[in-house]
Specification:
121 residues; mainly alpha; 434 Repressor (Amino-terminal Domain)
Length: 121
């Protein structure tokens, strides 16, 4: 499951909306919406996120937060470490090899640490 998919499912559940009803409102198939919720589709497009926000009446900060989750929701990540330090390449490779074995508390700690690092856009 991706961050966007988990949030989308939580919003749908909080509102007591059936998957098929939300899919119809977004003009997608229930299978597509289910795949999006479960992270079996690629990163959602900005257009799709905009349609979700319009359909659900999500505005301002909440819409921006949903788009940020979508931006972090590609289920197949490629990390280009060309030109970076050997440590960066090692970290990327170790993360790829061991991510399936990490416990949720370890993942949360990594995410918390990364949240305090400056990002480049």
């Amino acid at each position: 499951m991706t961050p966007f998919g988990a949030r989308l499912r939580a919003i749908r559940t909080e509102r007591g909306m059936a998957l098929k009803d939300m899919a119809a409102g977004l003009q997608v198939t229930p299978a597509y919406l289910s795949a999006m919720e479960h992270g079996h589709r690629g990163k959602p497009s900005r257009r799709f996120v905009h349609r979700v926000c319009q359909f659900l009446g999500i505005i301002w900060d909440d819409a921006e937060a949903l788009q940020e989750l979508a931006d972090l929701s590609h289920p197949r990540v490629v990390v280009d470490t060309a030109g970076l330090s050997p440590e960066a390449t090692e970290l990327a490779n170790r993360m790829a090899a061991q991510i399936h074995d990490l416990k949720e508390e370890d993942l949360r700690r990594f995410l918390d640490d990364l949240a305090h690092c400056p990002t480049r856009n």
